[in-house]
Structure formats: C-alpha cells, structure tokens
Design brief:
alpha+beta, single chain
Amino acid sequence: MGWELRRGKRVYVRKVREGARVRSIYCGAGERGKQAAREDKERRAAQRPPRVRLFRRPKRPAPPPVVVAPEPAPVLVPPPPARSEQVRREVTAAAVKWHKQRLLARRPFALHPVRTFKP
C-alpha cells in the first residue's frame, strides 16, 4: 500500500495478496487517495497489538545547582614595546637568510641558475 507516481500524478494504490500473486488496486488520486490512505492507516493501527513497556526507566536525580563564582577583576597588561624600524629590518633579514640556508640544504641547485653544458 502506498503512493505511486503514474503519468506525473500521485495516486494511492492498495496491494492485495491473492495466493502467491500480489495485485494492485487503484484507490484514487487527490482527496479520494488521501481518504483511502487514512482508512488503511486506521485499519493497520487497529490490527497492531498495543505496546507494553517491560520496565520503566528510573528518574534521574536533579542536577546540583550551579554556583557561579564572581568574575575576578581584569588584569591589565601593558602592551609590548614597539620595535624600532632598524630592529624589524634586522630580524627580517636574519629570517630570510635562515630560510635560504634551509632551502639550499634541501635542494642545493634551487637558487642557482641553470647551467648548460656545451658538447
């Protein structure tokens, strides 16, 4: 039982077993289909046995109350001293030199021009 799409339309179809065969019975589209679907749903609910709980889960104890401590006063940290332009240039030059050395250590010919050999 269920909704199918036939020629671009949604239609409700019941499936009925006759011996070894399953036959489809067209119930309708639109309101007629919705009504048939409701009837089938109610019929299945009536056939289904009621659900029985085998055990009840124990209730959890309430969590302890949350105690919020007062926030400490903010600690004011002075900003770091500004580097002079000369110090910044020296640090940058040292970093570039270090990186070039690392690159040459891994690939010795990376920064050298391509050499061509004449036969």
